[in-house]
Design a protein that fits this description.
118 residues; alpha/beta; 3-stranded antiparallel beta sheet; 4 helices; 10 strands; 26% helix; 31% strand
Length: 118
C-alpha cells in the first residue's frame, strides 16, 4: 500500500484519490473518518475524541499514526491517547505522517488516521 499527499484537501491511496479525512486499517481497508463524533462533542473535528477513536480500534495494531492536517490542527485528546497507551503513537502534519506510514507499513501493523485539510 502506498500513500501520497499531493496537495491540501487530497490524499491518494494506491492511486485512488480521497477528498476527505480517512482511516486506514492494518488490513488495508480504507474508510471515511467519522469526525462528526468528535465535532458533536467538542464543536470541532480537530480534537480526536475517545468515542471516535474507539470506532477505529477494531483491528490489532502496533502503531497509530495521526496525520494532523496540512497545518497540524488535529490532535489526540489525552483521554484518546490513554486508549492506546501501550502502542507507538505519532502525531505529525499529514505530509510527514504519510511518509512515516509508507516507511512503517511494510514492517508493522499500522492504524492511520489522516486529516487532509487544515
Amino acid at each position: 500500500m502506498k500513500l501520497e499527499y499531493p496537495s491540501f484537501g487530497r490524499i491518494v491511496v494506491d492511486g485512488k484519490t480521497y477528498e476527505h479525512d480517512i482511516v486506514i486499517y492494518p488490513s488495508g481497508r480504507v474508510e471515511k473518518r467519522k469526525k462528526w463524533l468528535s465535532k458533536n462533542k467538542h464543536g470541532t473535528s480537530h480534537r480526536l475524541d475517545p468515542e471516535e477513536l474507539r470506532e477505529y480500534l477494531t483491528e490489532d495494531f502496533d502503531v497509530l499514526i495521526v496525520g494532523t492536517g496540512y497545518y497540524g490542527y488535529l490532535s489526540l485528546l489525552p483521554e484518546s491517547r490513554e486508549l492506546v497507551g501501550d502502542k507507538e503513537v505519532y502525531e505529525l502534519p499529514t505530509g510527514e505522517a504519510v511518509e512515516l506510514f509508507n516507511e512503517l507499513n511494510e514492517k508493522k501493523r499500522v492504524l492511520g488516521i489522516f486529516h487532509v485539510t487544515c
